[in-house]
User: Fold these one by one.
Assistant:
Number 1:
Amino acid sequence: MNITDYTSGPWKAKDQWGYIKIHSKDEGVCAVHGLGVNSQANARLISSAPDLLQVVEDYVLLCDLHDYVGAVPDAARAALRKAKGEV
C-alpha cells in the first residue's frame, strides 16, 4: 500500500443509527459498531488517524535530518512502517 492511498483527511466521527460513521468531506471511511464509551473512544482515535500520521511522518523526517536515534524515533519509524503496510 502506498501511504497516499488512504482517504484524505480530515476525518470526522458522526453517530448514526447504532454505529459511528467515520467520514471525510467526500466519502465514508469506516463504521464503528455500537455507541458505548469504547466505541466512542475508538471512533475518535480512528478519525484522528490522518492527523497522527502526518505528525509521525514529520517527526521521522526531523529525526532523519538530524540523525536522532533511540527508542522513540525507532518506535515512530515502526509505526510509520505499520501504517504503510510494510510490516
Number 2:
Amino acid sequence: MKNVIGSATGKPRPAGGDRGRVEKQNVSMTGSRALQAGGFVCGHKIGRGLWEGASAQQWGDWEWQFRNRVRSLKQLASVINTPVESLAACRPVTKTYPLAITPYYLSLMDAAEGDDPLRGQCFPDPRELDLSLGEEADDPLGEETAMPVPGLIHRYPDRCLLIVTNACAVYCRHCNRKRIWGDEKHRGVREWLQPMIDHVARTPSLREVIISGGDPLLLSDGLLECLLGALRAIPHVEVLRIGSRAPVTLPMRVTPELAVMLKRHRPLWFNTQFNHVREITPESTRACERLLMAGIPVSNQSVLLKGINDDYETMRDLLIGLERISVRPYYLFQCDPVRGVNHFRAEIRGGMEIMEKLRQNVSGLCLPRYVLDCPGGRGKIPLQHSFHSAHGGAGIDKHSFDKRDRMD
C-alpha cells in the first residue's frame, strides 16, 4: 500500500479507602464524606517540590510536565523528603521496570502515607520482582503471538489493536504491558506505524481499530492526526478507539487544539483509566470535558487493585465521581497475572462481592462490567454472581465463562 502516513506536522514528542487526609466539606455534593470533599487537602501533600520555580504557564504545559518527570530514585527521594538510602531496595526494580511520574500526578499524593492509593500505583516496589507464585508471565494474554506485523494485535475477527508507542507519562506499576517499557524498538515513528496501517488496509474484516500503547497521546498532534487520517481513509474501517491514561496522569495534554483535531475523525471513542476518586480533579475533569464537548464519548476501564480500590466504599465513590463528570464506567478489570504485579491482584470473590453490593446500591449508569481477560488470548469473560432462589438468596457459586459473552 502507498505510504499514507505522510510527514507529521509540528515537532515529534517522545514517544483501600482514603487514609491520612483532611477533607473539605461541600454540602452541595452527595455520597460519602470522601466523595463530598470533591478534592483532598493532604496533611503532607507532595506539592510542587522540585518544581517550585515553575510558572503557572509551565505547570500547565504538557511538554514541560513530560520533560520534568521524576525518572530516578534520587529525584523521588528528594520529592518525598526521605534519604535516598531508604529506597535502596527499589534499585533492582527500576533496572527492570523504569520509573516515570509526572509532577502533576505526584502533586496529588500524600508524602507521609506509604499506603497512599495514588503513590501505590506509580512508586517502584520490591514486590515487583517477587515471583514466588510461579504463575506470572511477561505476556499472559498472548499478545506477542497474535501480531501479524510488529505492534498490531489481531485476536478478534473484526477489530485489532495498535501499540503505537511504548512511552507513557507515568509508568503504572500494575500495567499489563510493562514488558515493553524498556524496549528500544523505534515505536512512535512513521516507519513503525506504516506496516500496521498496511495490514489494516489489506484485511477487509477489520471494521474497528483501537489505538493504544504505551500512551498514544504522547505522539505529536501532527503524527497522531496522520495516523487517524490514514486509518479513516480505509473504506472498511468504521470506528476508531483511543486508549490513553493522559486525562488522569497528564491532563494538560488534552488541549483545545487536540480536541478539535480528534473531532475531525469521528466516530471516535476514547477509553481512559481512573482507578481512584482522588484522580478526579479539576484538571482531569477539564480534559474529559474537552473530549466530550468535541462529541467524543469517554469511557473508563478501571483495574481492581489490592490496597488501592478493592473495597466497596472506594469503588462506589470512584464510580459516582465518574458519573458526575459524564465519564461512563465501562469495565472493571481483574488484574492480569503479569510478572511484576502479583501484589496488586485482589481476590476474584472479593471483586464479585463488591460488584453485587454496587448493583444493590448505585445507579445502573455507574456500573462497569467486572471482567477477566483470559490468559492465552481467549478474550474477556464476565465475573458475576449466580443466583439460586432455592437457597433463599444470592451465592457466589461460579464465574460465568460463557464463550458467547466474550467482550473487547
Number 3:
Amino acid sequence: MRRPEIWVAAAPCHLTKGLRTMRSGLPILGATLAWVVLGGAPGYCAVEVIGLKDGHAVTGEVVAEKANAIYVDIGFDILRVPRDQVVRRDKPGEAGAVAGPSRAADVDSSGFYASGSLRSAPVKELVSKYGEAVISIETPSGKGSGFVVNDQGYAVTNHHVIQGETRIAAVLYQNVASGLSRRRIENVEIVALNPFVDLALLKLPSLKELKLSHVVLGSLDDLNAGDGVFAIGNPLGLERSVSQGIVSTRNRNFEGQIYLQTDAAINPGNSGGPLFNLRGEVIGVTNMKATQGDNLGFAIPINYVKDFLRNREAFSYDKENPNTGYRYLDPPRRLRAGKPPGLRPALTTDKVPSSDRQSSGSR
C-alpha cells in the first residue's frame, strides 16, 4: 500500500511534500514535541521571541498556531508550546522582547522596589532565599507580619497591624551557620498609611552592621486560579511559619475591593505578610480570613501594593497630626466609687496620665 502523503513544516519554513520523522530532542522548558500538520499554500514564517511564564524565552519561526498551542521551528526540531504558558510574543530586537527573567514594562522607574519574573524553584529553596525579607511587626497591642521591599529598610505591612500605634518594633530572622538568628529592632518609623486598602509603609532604622534582604514584587498578568502559592508569617505568634496552597480565585470582591483568595493557611498574625508564587515573587499581602470556614484566606493583590508604593507621598504619615496613628487611651479607673478623701475641688479637673496597655495579641 502506498504511504499517504502529508504536508509538514520544514526549515526554512516552506511547506515540503513528503514525510518528516520527528527526532527525539531535549525537553525544553517542559514543552512537548509534536507532529505539525499544515494545510494551504507555502508561505513565510516570521521569527519571534516567545516569553514563557517561568521567565524563559523561546526564539524560532512560528510554523503553526492552534487553539491551545503554538508550534515553533527551533532549527533542529518542532517545539510545541502550550498557549497557557505564553506571556509575551515579540520580534527579535524589539524593546519589549523577552531576553531574560525580567518584565521591562513592570519596572519601577524610581528604583524604590524590585519587580520582575524569576525562575521557578522548589518552595524550600524559595523560603531559604527570600524568607529573610519577611519580618515580624510588634506593637504594644499585638503582632503581625511584614516584608522588606528594598535595601534601604522600607517594609510593607497591613494598616490594621499598626493602627493607632506609634511604638513599633520589627523582628528580623537572618540565616547564620547555626540556623536562624533573631534580631529585634526598635524605633521603626511610620512612612505612609492607606487605611482604605489596608496598607502601611514602615522604615527600619539604618544600622551599619545590618544587611537587609528584600523581596521581588511580581505580577498578576500570568496568575490563574489553581496556581501554587505559599505564605510566610507569624500566625498566632508562631514565628516564621510557612503555609502552602493554591490560588482559589484571583478576583474575589469585598466592599468594592478585589482580593486574591487562597486555601493556604492564613491566621491572625499572618496579617501584613507576603503571599508568594512558586517563583518567589510577592503577588499579594495577606490580610484576612473567613472565620466561619476553613481554607478561606485573602490577600491584597500586588497591583494595589505597587500603586501604594509609587504614590507613597500622597499617603505620607504626619507625626504632628494626632489623627494619623496616635491612640488616646482612657485614664485608669478608680478602685472605689465616690470622691477620693481629701481631694480639693480645684483638683478634680486635673488630668491623670494614662498608662500603656499591657495586653498583647495577634493581628
